[in-house]
Design goal:
Elements (H helix, E strand, L loop, with lengths): L3 E5 L3 H12 L3 E6 L14 E2 L13 H8 L6 E3 L4 H14 L2 H16 L1 H11 L6 E2 L3 E5 L2 H18 L3 E5 H7 L10 E5 L3 E3 L2 H14 L3 E4 L6 E3 L2 E6 L2 E5 L1 E4 L5 H6 L8 E12 L9 E3 L4 E6 L2 E5 L2 E3 L9 H10 L5 E4 L5 E7 L6 E4 L6 E5 L5 H16 L19
Parallel strand pairs: 1-2, 1-14, 2-10, 4-19, 6-16, 14-23
Antiparallel strand pairs: 3-9, 5-9, 6-8, 7-8, 11-12, 12-13, 15-18, 15-20, 15-21, 16-17, 17-18, 22-23
Helix pairs in contact: 1-8, 1-11, 5-11
């Protein structure tokens, strides 16, 4: 008999996992409170970051930490009143970001990143979503020669060890590539050749959802809070009534900590919130490239909805009210280099990234339950790693030999 599976969480990770399970003969129901792609997967920089082999670490230099403590930056912001509850997570995050440990984590993380574009390519073609994709990389620009040269040296190391391709850019190169950008303040930059960019991340997740349904899968509204063991499998209440399955996958992003705690687990999952806003342009101005102003910490992306401006990380509780101060700072800085027009969204979008203190996702079998599987904690690379996570986890669930080793991402490493 065909085995049933439920996937909780309809972001890019959950939808991708559902596709790969359905392809392998499982009858899959995708479950979420909202339609697919309407939470964290809705708002991001829209980059499939093949170059992102090194996870974002916690600053180690005392001088930089002191500057962050002033809480006036674009790339990071924190809620002072919530810091005491986050100290344990931040301390482990800082410890793992030590140069030696970070290098080891980068090597363990690399197989996921190395397969990110090819696994997206598979689903993009299958879902006929090619119109949402650009394949011309993105650029990172620098205001100081010192930062530029350090980035050149790091990029050369990544190219040698991980096969990441890039071009070194002069200020004249940037001016040629972006004729409507005021580039006099920039000393140069890097264009990463390998990444793909997404003109509408929500539309991409929706296209994957439609492809999943074309395979015979279905989406049903439901709440992960009702999931529980039932016989040798699992049971959950949905809008269509109770549903039973042999296997359950939790791909719940930042809500995974709460959902797994109900089943007796205690993962050190932190949250980095982020904001975006779309803008018109003044006159006939055109932005050609996804562009990160590296020393200010914001990114401009030419998306279908307008120019998307994204911020860095906000350290706050998952349910804290919006505090889009970073967006205001980023908008002021961005207007000095590009002729942004008016805001196109009624209010800033905010989402939360689920983060582990060792910067790697949690992918694999639940340690104390049969038929329960985890796929969360992808931090800044949820969009990037959705399809590769979905494939490798589906292979493990269905008894195939996984195409990459996922031992480093095992839930067991946290002794939950």
């Amino acid at each position: 008999m065909t085995k049933n599976a439920i996937v909780l969480g309809a972001g890019i990770v959950g939808v991708s996992t559902a596709i790969h399970l359905q392809r392998r003969g499982r009858q899959v129901t995708l479950i979420d409170r909202k339609d697919p792609g309407n939470e964290t997967s809705f708002g991001n920089a829209g980059l499939i970051q093949r170059e992102g082999v090194m996870p974002y670490g916690f600053p180690q230099q005392l001088g930089l930490l002191l500057r962050y403590a002033l809480n006036n930056r674009i790339d990071a912001h924190y809620h002072l009143r919530t810091l005491p509850s986050q100290i344990a997570f931040l301390a482990r995050y800082w410890w793992n970001s030590n140069a030696r440990r970070h290098a080891n984590i980068t090597r363990a993380y690399a197989p996921l990143i190395e397969n990110s574009v090819v696994e997206h390519k598979d689903l993009i073609e299958a879902s006929q979503a090619e119109a949402l994709i650009r394949k011309d990389g993105w650029m990172k620009i620098f205001r100081s020669e010192a930062k530029r040269d350090a980035a050149f040296a790091e990029a050369a190391l990544w190219q040698n060890e991980f096969g990441v391709e890039y071009d070194s850019l002069t200020s004249a190169d940037i001016a040629r590539m972006e004729p409507h950008m005021m580039t006099s303040d920039f000393a140069g930059g890097i264009r990463w050749r390998d990444p793909w960019s997404v003109l509408d991340p929500h539309a991409l997740t929706s296209a994957y959802r439609r492809y999943f349904e074309s395979l015979g899968g279905r989406f049903v509204a439901g709440d992960a809070a009702s999931l529980g063991p039932f016989g040798s499998g699992w049971k959950i209440m949905t809008a269509e009534g109770p549903l039973e399955a042999d296997d359950a996958v939790m791909a719940l992003g930042p809500w995974a900590a709460v959902a797994t705690r109900r089943l007796g687990y205690s993962f050190p999952l932190g949250v980095k919130r982020g904001y975006h806003m779309h803008y018109a342009t003044e006159g006939n101005a055109v932005l050609n490239n996804w562009t990160l102003d590296a020393e200010r910490g914001y990114l401009l992306a030419p998306m279908n909805r307008g120019i998307r401006l994204t911020t860095g990380a906000e350290f706050a509780t998952l349910d804290a009210p919006k505090t889009p101060v970073q967006l205001g700072r980023a908008e002021a800085a961005a207007r000095t280099i590009f002729p942004l027009g008016g805001r196109l969204d009624p209010e800033p979008w905010m989402g939360a990234r689920p983060c582990t203190p060792d910067m790697m996702p949690i992918i694999g079998k639940a340690p104390r339950h049969q038929g329960l599987w985890f796929a969360f904690g992808h931090a800044h690379h949820g969009l990037t790693l959705g399809p590769v996570t979905g494939r490798v986890l589906a292979e493990v669930i269905t008894g195939e030999t996984p195409f990459i080793d996922i031992a480093a991402y095992s839930p067991q490493r946290f002794k939950p």
